[in-house]
Amino acid sequence: MGKVFDAIKARFQTRDIPKTERGRFNALMRSEKGNTKKVAERLGVSQRQVQRIAKGDRKIENSKPETLKRLEQEVSKGHQPRVRAQAEKRARERGLTVETRAQFGFSADAGSTDDPRWRRLTEDVPDHLIPGLFEALRANDEAEVERLIGQGLAEEYFRMPGTDTERLDVEFGDVDYIELDYR
């Protein structure tokens, strides 16, 4: 995982999903209250296969890599829903602040570019991006989390309405460190 995704998970979750495939499978079974049909639908496998795994006739570790990836995604979606809901509610009420040291590059009109350079920024995340940030966290979408944080930093620090910088494309990358907190 990337530093941005790890930072947001660390701030808005109290513990990680189970580390082993068996632990993840058991967590998914608990979340669906033992309903093998629903688990099979979420994993994209047959109900009989889920029954064999639950019974112990087959090891989940021997499943296809796509199934194991799907298992991780499905467990992440429903992991700590109350903790995430409280964090999202607080973030919507109070807002979020990002402190980071990262490389930022630009491209503007007429093909002018600047090479990326290191900047240390402390900026608020625009309120309209917060719901998407939590949706990306629920979906375990690391690329979307990074895009939204980068977009928020660009809007708050680099772009100024009514000037040429309003259309500035900002590239956010190579993160040295990042921390998120409530305003």
How would you portray this structure in words?
The protein is 50% helix and 21% strand. Helix 7 (130-138) packs antiparallel against helix 8 (142-158). It is of the alpha+beta class. The protein has two domains: 18-78; 85-182, no CATH class. The chain has helices at 3-12, 21-31, 36-43, 47-55, 65-77, 81-94, 130-138, 142-158, and strands at residues 96-107, 113-125, 169-182. A hairpin with a 5-residue loop joins strand 1 (96-107) and strand 2 (113-125). It is elongated and about 65 Å long. It has a three-stranded antiparallel sheet. It contains eight helices and three strands; from the N terminus they run H-H-H-H-H-H-E-E-H-H-E.
